[in-house]
Amino acid sequence: MKTTKTAFASCLLALAAAVTAACGGGGSRSVIQNKGSDTLVNVAQAWAEEYAAVAPGIAVAVTGGGSGTGIAAMINGTVDIANSSRKMKDSELDLARGNGAEPIEFVVGYDALAVYVHPDNPLDEVSLEQLASLYGEGGEIESWSQFGVEVPGCGSDEIVRVSRQNNSGTYVYFREAVLGDRRDFRLGSRDMHGSKDVVDLVENTPCAIGYSGLAYATDHVKMPCVRTGEGGDCVSPSVETAIDGSYPIARPLFMYTAGEPQGAIREYIGWVLSDEGQCIIYDKGYAPRGDVDCS
Amino acid sequence: MFEATARNRRNRKVEGLLRLLFLWMTCMLILPVALILGVLVVRGGPAISWEFLFTQPLDNMTAGGILPALVGTVWLVVVALIASVPVGVAAALYLSEYAPDNRLTRAINLAIINLAGVPSIVHALFGLGAFVIFFRFGTSILAASLTLAVMTLPVVIVATRESLQTVPLAFREACWNMGATRWQTIRKIVLPNAISGILTGVILEVSRTSGETAPIMFTGAAFFLPFLPQGVLDQTMAMSLHLFVISTQVPDVPEHMPFGVALVLISMVLAMNGLSIAFRVYLRGRKKW
């Protein structure tokens, strides 16, 4: 039995040594806990990855779970920064104040979706109802003549619907804002695997219509204005209309901290809001807070 | 004289059919395992390389390696083992060697069996409430591993108790008759004879622990962490959650990557199982009865 015991003990020792060796590199790091919105999680991950190079002494730990989860964790004090794709509710604000910390809100960018058509397409405006009827399950719109336009170069008159793969945040938000939570997308769309791919396809397909992040607009596509309801104004997509809230398919994206951020957290949020951080959110298909040159 | 009657022939036919049916069912059992392994090796194999195992993820986790997840899983498993094995073995020792067969003991046994049946997401919420919030461990390896330990405790207890009970009572009685105390008997006679079964329980726990996703999602595993954990109060990435994340949350991940992660995870588990089988064979060879 003696040898077995020794063998087992040495096994454990070896394992412990391996773990220590694997993890021994680097000195002490300070960790920023960042949690929340699944819409923002990929941007948050990109920020964290990039920030590791900017400030090697700081590590940003990113977790998803949803806006509510992040806000709750921020209120409980288990994370430093909550990511959210909605404003904090009054009840959440009260809870946070009850814990002695006034939540501070930072707008880190906008989730603004533009509708794209081919530049030769005479369509100048669409309504949310028309978009829902075009993309939603059980919808009626199949052809450009139902929009009252005749598209040069699109002999078939049939609309080519361009959409996104169903795990993209863009897909989820478009569904939320245009179709409503309970309605599904209609089958038969061309589902692209990237924001840029949607715009590329529409650029080269006269029959096509698609939606994608505003940040992906080029000079070779047309963005019709979007109307809410019958009598509403038709609002063109732009960073300004996203910021003032008049454009219907846009929402601000937030970071929240419990109380005024200090030290490393303050520096991190400052970096997120800087041109460098804003270009990362732009690269992920969202609109930055203001004009930044990311070319 | 012994001519087959119609009834004999019918019986033989039923016998044959049943045999075939059972054989078929057994094959059905093997089929998914073979398919899973086959698909993983074919589609995930090309992803496996030295870089894949030992570098940080890059480009929004669509490139680079899985080192933080791999190291994180090792941390989670080791800490969970440290927490659960002593408790589990001690509980099994009490239940098997000391406890009288009364209503309380039976109730405890029942509770252990039921604990094994609690869904892992419930353990996750328990861990969040107890370890993360109440004990203020935060989302950390410690909180996640303790949650995993609570969840896998029944596995260790049941496996240990069963292997203790395979040691014949006559061994103990002989020992007691020599004047040995209960603890002396356990240490010198019962444990050495039961060690292979206990190890099986431990290995089973390792397999389960390394694959669980729900319990660690709320208690300690991160979507992304650009460093390796330095201690038990750090958060960590983990293989199982990483697999979930890159197959459902992150856009544009090359197809071979999730399969690669799954292949590494299942290889780890199979290697542990293989190790346990080898160890058992070795120990059985040393058994003197």
Word description of this protein:
The complex is a heterodimer of chains A (295) and B (289). Chain A has ten helices and eleven strands. With 295 residues, chain A is of the alpha/beta class. In chain A, the strands form two sheets. Chain A has an eight-stranded mixed β-sheet with strand order 2-1-3-11-4-8-6-7, sandwiched between helices. In chain A, strands 5-9-10 form a three-stranded mixed β-sheet. In chain A, helix 2 links the parallel strand 1 and strand 2. The longest helix of chain A is centred in the first third of the chain and has 22 residues. About 6% of the residues of chain A have low confidence. Chain B is 74% helix and 1% strand. A two-stranded antiparallel ribbon of chain B has the order 1-2. Chain B is globular and about 80 Å long. The two termini of chain B are 47 Å apart. Classes of the chains: A alpha/beta (295), B mainly alpha (289). Chains A and B meet through helix 1, helix 2 and strand 2 of A and strand 1 and helix 3 of B.
**Total number of distinct structural domains of chain B:** 2
Determine the N-to-C terminus distance of chain B.
Answer: 47 Å
Radius of gyration of CA atoms of chain B, rounded to a whole number: 24 Å
Percent of residues of chain B in helical segments?
Answer: over 70%
- How would you write the strand order of the largest sheet of chain A? 2-1-3-11-4-8-6-7
N-C termini distance of chain A? 69 Å
Task: Look at the structure and give the mean pLDDT of chain B.
Answer: 88
Q: Largest sheet of chain A, described in full?
A: 8 strands, mixed
SSE order of chain B: HHEEHHHHHHHHH
Proportion of beta-strand residues of chain B: under 5%
Which secondary-structure class do the elements of chain A indicate? alpha/beta
What kind of oligomer do you see?
Answer: heterodimer
Name of the CATH superfamily of the largest domain in chain B: MetI-like
Overall mean confidence score, pLDDT of chain A: 84
Q: Main beta sheet of chain B, described? A: 2 strands, antiparallel
